[in-house]
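Dear support,

We are seeing what looks like truncated structure output for some complexes. This example has two components. We would appreciate it if you could run it in full and send us the complete token output so we can diff it against ours.
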Amino acid sequence: EAGVTQFPSHSVIEKGQTVTLRCDPISGHDNLYWYRRVMGKEIKFLLHFVKESKQDESGMPNNRFLAERTGGTYSTLKVQPAELEDSGVYFCASRRGQGETGELFFGEGSRLTVL
Amino acid sequence: QKEVEQDPGPLSVPEGAIVSLNCTYSNSAFQYFMWYRQYSRKGPELLMYTYSSGNKEDGRFTAQVDKSSKYISLFIRDSQPSDSATYLCAMSDLHGSSNTGKLIFGQGTTLQVKP
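Here is the complete output from our reference environment:
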């Protein structure tokens, strides 16, 4: 079974440009999460999809960030326009349902560098 | 004040040593307590989880939760060079009978086990 895959693994852009990160969750997983780790800080929750619906987007930093999950399969996270402070590693995670622990399976992350 | 505090280390120990990793937290609503292991350039992977207070053992790993002190620990016995990684504590409150999936992470402790 394929794990959570993220693309690109690393993106370097200029301030003011747009970047779109993609996440393919594990097949059959209705729940999809985006997290971010800024250098020197802890991993922080951004938002949670259940299928195509946003369940919780309380962690989204501002309106420059737009997440979508059309059709309830893969998800994209767009940053437009990017700022220097957006640099970090963006992790996607998925899980099938709530369950006992509802273990989250993380992807390897997309590293974003804004110059 | 951060919700979860974790000493980032680094922590360096000789092979075979007992390792103790710890986190403190402030939110009494947390019910699920997890330890993730993250190798360099990889995503976090779930190592141990504990619901509410108590101990849990899995091979060389033991997780402890003391809710009265808001303190959790991970012990690694007979540490191996392959245990060298960053260890992240994470916590979650409840959604129904399971965790919400909205994890609050500590900063992570970098562990190096020297042969």
